[in-house]
Amino acid sequence: MQAVFPQLEEHGATLVALTPQLAEHNSTMIDKNELGFDLLSDPGNVYADALGLRFEVPEQVRAIYLSFGIDLSKHNGDASGTLPMPGRIVVDSDGIVRAVDVGPDYTKRPEPEKTVSDAAALG
User: Among residues 14, 17, 36, which one has the least CA distance to residue 122?
Assistant: First the structure.
């Protein structure tokens, strides 16, 4: 999304990302990846759950994550073992949802250019 961030700004859009990571890990990610947009923390995936977008990562998958050095409990600050479904929600200036792309397969994410075209359509 960083690559299309300037285009989104040209259309008057604000980009934020929501993550269950603790704020300290978000800061590291922002610095490491030189992100120009905010990462908001959703501890325990409470908001993702309210949207019906939270799922529990199976124990076997958590073990695989740990073998790669990904400790969900450490990064997210809770032992829920949950993650949000990857997705994108485009909301207009009146707070009306205009486009949604969400799916349970984390390997399939909306193309950033789709977000740009959705933002342009609002203008």
Answer: 14
pLDDT tens digits for 88-116? 999 999 999 999 999 888 788 888 999 99
Tell me how far CA of residue 123 lies from CA of 9, 59, 67, 109, 119, in angstroms: 12, 45, 46, 24, 7
Number of structural domains the chain divides into: 1
Residue 61 belongs to domain with CATH number: 3.40.30.10
Determine the average pLDDT of the residues in 55-65: 93
Which residue segment(s) compose the domain that 73 sits in?
A: 2-114
- Decide if pLDDT at 69 tops 80: yes
Whether residue 45 lies inside any domain: the answer is yes
Residue 2 has what DSSP assignment?
G
Helix (H, G, I), strand (E, B) or coil at 69: coil
Q: What is the pTM of this model?
A: 0.81
- Residue 119 forms part of a structural domain: no
